[in-house]
DNA sequence: GACCTGCTGCGGCCTG
């Protein structure tokens, strides 16, 4: 029997009505497996290869929807993705008379109420909405979701390795605890590459024995072009913009310039060039600080612009699977911080099966060029940075303790401990540690003991009853920008934000007329000339793998024909510049440049290792400078012996803790990258720092492994 | 110079 024959008749009719010539490879593979086994599956396949159908065609054929209760729960990281998938899944479900309900913060209340009256069919939800239900309406969890057959998790890679992912893992376990029968999980992803990560994925889905991987490895042809236009960080070179304009004026393009300020710069300046030469007007910007309705309009325009060209300058907001239709070319300005990101971005072009992807990588300095080459080579070698596993997610545990207690009407300690013990998310955290955290929450009035039962305490109520409770990530508050009642976006309060200052936002130029500090609002009017907006933020971490590859490229003789002529020359000069070091083994050796009074240490190490080295320098009292963009440390020649000293240092766990306590006491805000970590006892905060911000194990392994290679002759 | 993600309940106002 073919995969098609295995499907139920209504589904086959749906396929015939769609006039599909055949099923996609990934669907052929998934249909018999999902239909004929009770396993969990991870479906890995390229963007737009029919993954959603690969999951839903067999699930809808298999599941008995006659029984009362929601049978399939689809979980997505984005509201926009839920709205897209709703249209697709509902169309499919019309053939089977199955109800599909959206459940997220912007979904209709009436539809939600209707579902509560008639719990049935399929629900599309976000992790945060699920959390909110556990907290505020725990009986609805049971009422709606205790008869689940399948859970589908979309874009699973966006959860792996993040606190949000740990949060979801905990919610999945709590859902399983509310179900009499074991539900199956089908996870979808475009970017899981290394076979080593399968174990991680299987563990994530909670049942490694019964979890299988289905993947389509068919390569997709990609045309890649590298272009080099040197310029300062502050402003993009005009030549680059002109070149970009000429390349893209008669096609559909996504440009990824890595930062919101630069996104605006690209959108506004390309639009100005286009106006001057009479090109199309469809230049947009798309990032988290562009007003939501404006962003939705941009997405709508792109999806429906079959006859019109457009150019959207964007951040990672357009990285995940939101449907914006077909794009001819993807442009990356300066290197991505991860290979995963590069994969997602490349996947946005050439979405049709017969079309190849087009990628153009611009660089504005030699380090960025080097990083771009590294990411590209690793991409072609099918590497992805490893997933960061949190062994002991104390901060998520603290949040989940509050959630469990709030969702109950008083809980004995044994009951609370039992619920946590049953949740594999926290299996590496000991019962003693859990009790410590509960006691601490009691002390700071987040929990309170009423008789022998725990309830939420006075301080806890403030936190738990706030709408900010449901997520595991921070969002800064910005000033809302509008013009004459029309919402445009938002800006952080930087020195740049002053009355009469002109600024770019939403691909337009504005003059700031009035700032209302009380209500955090900015009123603007259109203007002719201005500057790109400044956003506060930290650079994303760069993986060790990428930095190591950069060193490898510098000390290899390989000629890359994908580079343009200037790029070839820049790389050649760069190699000559570093040839003063006789590096023969890139795994073990690191350059140390002796120049006048200063030493430059080229660590070529991942951001976490470098941050840990910074902490060690501070601890020893070395006066140093560190540049994250090129992974270089600079310090006085007189400190040279200290580098050897650090190398010889083997701090034990206790010593590391003492250092971290000292830093935390001096600067408590250093834990703030973890939203809930700030409420933990100090020693748990130190553990979070040790595993998330720093990495002492890898840092010492790295330092012990490497030999310093000095320059052979003097350099000015 | 530096990414992104989500959101309950309730009171109050408006419209049909």
Automatic annotation (TrEMBL):
Residue ranges constituting the Helicase ATP-binding domain according to the UniProt record: 32-199
Stretches assigned to the Helicase C-terminal domain: 240-395
Q: What keywords appear on the UniProt entry?
A: ATP-binding, Helicase, Hydrolase, Nucleotide-binding
- Can you name one GO molecular function term for this protein? helicase activity
Give the Pfam families listed for this entry.
DEAD, Helicase_C
Question: SMART domains per the record?
Answer: DEXDc, HELICc
Q: Any keyword ATP-binding?
A: yes
Entry keyword Nucleotide-binding: yes
UniProt xrefs under InterPro entries: ATP-dep_Helicase (IPR052511), DEAD/DEAH_box_helicase_dom (IPR011545), Helicase_ATP-bd (IPR014001), Helicase_C-like (IPR001650), P-loop_NTPase (IPR027417)
- The superkingdom of the source organism is Bacteria
PANTHER family, per this entry?
ATP-DEPENDENT HELICASE LHR-RELATED (PTHR47962:SF5), ATP-DEPENDENT HELICASE LHR-RELATED-RELATED (PTHR47962)
Protein name per the record? DEAD/DEAH box helicase
Q: What is the lineage of its organism?
A: Bacteria, Pseudomonadati, Bacteroidota, Flavobacteriia, Flavobacteriales
């Amino acid at each position: 029997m073919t995969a098609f024959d295995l499907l139920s008749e209504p589904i086959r009719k749906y396929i015939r009505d769609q006039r599909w010539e055949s099923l996609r490879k990934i669907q052929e593979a998934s249909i018999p497996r999902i239909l004929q086994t009770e396993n969990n599956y991870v479906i890995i396949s390229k963007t737009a290869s029919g993954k959603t159908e690969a999951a839903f065609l067999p699930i809808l054929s298999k599941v008995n929807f006659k029984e009362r209760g929601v049978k399939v729960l689809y979980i997505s990281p984005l509201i926009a993705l839920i709205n897209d998938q709703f249209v697709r899944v509902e169309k499919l479900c019309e053939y089977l008379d199955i109800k599909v309900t959206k459940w997220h913060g912007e979904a209709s209340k009436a539809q939600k109420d209707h579902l509560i009256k008639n719990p049935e069919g399929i629900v599309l939800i976000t992790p945060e909405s699920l959390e909110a239900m556990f907290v505020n309406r725990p009986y609805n969890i049971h009422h709606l979701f205790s008869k689940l057959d399948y859970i589908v998790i979309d874009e699973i890679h966006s959860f792996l390795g993040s606190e949000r992912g740990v949060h979801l893992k905990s919610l999945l376990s709590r859902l399983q605890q509310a179900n009499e029968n074991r539900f199956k999980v089908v996870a979808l992803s475009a970017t899981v590459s290394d076979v080593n990560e399968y174990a991680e994925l299987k563990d994530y889905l909670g049942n490694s024995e019964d979890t299988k991987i289905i993947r389509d490895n068919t390569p997709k042809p990609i045309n890649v072009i590298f272009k080099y236009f040197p310029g300062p960080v502050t402003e993009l070179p005009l030549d680059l913009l002109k070149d970009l304009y000429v390349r893209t004026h008669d096609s559909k393009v996504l440009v990824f310039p890595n930062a919101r300020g630069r996104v605006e710069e690209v959108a506004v300046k390309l639009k100005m060039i286009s106006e001057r030469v009479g090109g199309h007007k469809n230049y947009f910007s798309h990032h988290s600080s562009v007003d939501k309705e404006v962003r939705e309009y941009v997405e709508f325009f792109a999806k429906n612009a079959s006859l019109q060209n457009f150019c959207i300058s964007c951040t990672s907001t357009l990285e995940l699977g939101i449907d914006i239709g077909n794009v001819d070319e993807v442009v990356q300005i300066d290197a991505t911080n991860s290979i995963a990101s590069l994969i997602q971005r490349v996947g946005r072009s050439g979405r049709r099966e017969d079309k190849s992807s087009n990628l153009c990588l611009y660089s504005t300095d030699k380090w960025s060029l080097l990083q771009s080459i590294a990411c590209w080579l690793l991409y072609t070698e099918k590497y992805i940075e490893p997933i960061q596993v949190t062994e002991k997610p104390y901060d998520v545990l603290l949040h989940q303790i509050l959630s469990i207690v709030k969702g109950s009407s008083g809980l004995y300690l044994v009951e609370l401990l039992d619920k946590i013990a049953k949740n594999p998310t926290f299996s590496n955290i000991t019962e003693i540690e859990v009790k410590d955290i509960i006691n601490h929450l009691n002390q700071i009035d987040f929990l309170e003991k009423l008789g022998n039962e725990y309830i939420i305490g006075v301080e806890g109520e403030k936190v738990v009853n706030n709408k900010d409770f449901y997520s595991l990530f921070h969002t800064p508050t910005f000033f809302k920008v509008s013009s004459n009642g029309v919402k445009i976006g938002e800006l952080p309060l930087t020195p740049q934000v002053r009355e009469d200052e002109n600024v770019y936002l939403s691909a337009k130029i504005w003059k700031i007329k009035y700032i209302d500090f009380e209500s955090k609002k900015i009123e603007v009017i259109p203007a002719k000339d201005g500057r790109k907006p400044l956003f506060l933020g930290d650079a994303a971490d760069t993986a060790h793998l990428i930095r190591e590859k950069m060193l490898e490229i510098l000390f290899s003789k390989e000629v890359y024909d994908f580079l343009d002529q200037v790029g070839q020359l820049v790389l050649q000069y760069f190699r000559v510049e570093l040839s003063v070091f006789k590096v023969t083994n890139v795994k073990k050796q690191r350059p140390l440049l002796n120049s006048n009074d200063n030493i430059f240490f080229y660590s070529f190490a991942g951001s976490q290792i470098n941050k840990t080295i910074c902490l060690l320098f501070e601890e020893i009292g070395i006066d140093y400078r560190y540049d994250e963009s090129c992974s270089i440390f600079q310090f006085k020649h007189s400190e040279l012996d200290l580098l050897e000293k650090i190398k010889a240092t083997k701090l034990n766990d206790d010593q590391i803790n003492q250092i971290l306590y000292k830093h935390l006491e001096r600067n408590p805000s250093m834990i703030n990258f973890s939203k809930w970590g700030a409420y933990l006892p100090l020693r748990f905060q130190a553990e979070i720092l040790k595993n998330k911000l720093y990495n002492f194990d890898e840092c010492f392994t790295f330092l012990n492994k490497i030999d310093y290679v000095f320059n052979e002759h003097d350099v000015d």
